[in-house]
Amino acid sequence: MAYKLNSQQYENVCRLSDDQRLDYFLKKVTDFEEIWSLHSNDGWVALSSADGEDCLPIWPHPDFAKAWATGDWSDCTPKAIKLDYWIERWTPGLERDHTMLAVFPVGEEEGIVLSPAELQESLVGLLEQF
């Protein structure tokens, strides 16, 4: 279940820099143990990074993902992936498929592009602090 997010909080977070949004993403994902992406009948969405890498876009809250469900993705809806399932199944699968992660893109910005292993290292590091 996603945390509560009002329109002012949404706008404030969207104005953060890529690095600040990454920090926000890590904190919220470890607090609420969900990662959000966009899904349709055809599967999960993918994009190409500025460097031409295949990326799965991910967000900490469905409202941020929903804002990207336009144009070619207008048939997509936000879908949650539980953090434990992400760590156990998604990270190895994405690594095997050579799929990078576009962490918390907003507007025209792709966010920070990380490998699944890099994201997992950051997430596990935060979880171990609790």
Residue windows where pLDDT falls under 50 for at least 5 positions: none
CATH superfamily: Uncharacterised protein PF11572, DUF3234
Strand sequence of the main sheet, in spatial order? 3-4-6-7
Would you tell me which CATH topology applies? Answer: Trna Endonuclease, Chain: A, domain 1
What does this structure look like?
- There is one protein chain.
- 42% of the residues lie in helices and 22% in strands.
- α2 packs across α5.
- The longest helix has 15 residues, at 18-32.
- It has helices spanning 7-14, 18-32, 62-66, 83-96, 116-128; strands spanning 34-40, 43-44, 47-48, 54-58, 77-82, 100-103, 112-114.
- It has a single domain, classed as 3-Layer(aba) Sandwich (Trna Endonuclease, Chain: A, domain 1), CATH 3.40.1350.
- With 130 residues, the chain is of the alpha+beta class.
- The protein has a 4-stranded mixed β-sheet. Strands 2-1-5 form a 3-stranded antiparallel β-sheet.
- The chain is built from 5 helices and 7 strands.
- β6 and β7 (112-114) form a beta hairpin.
- The mean pLDDT is 94.
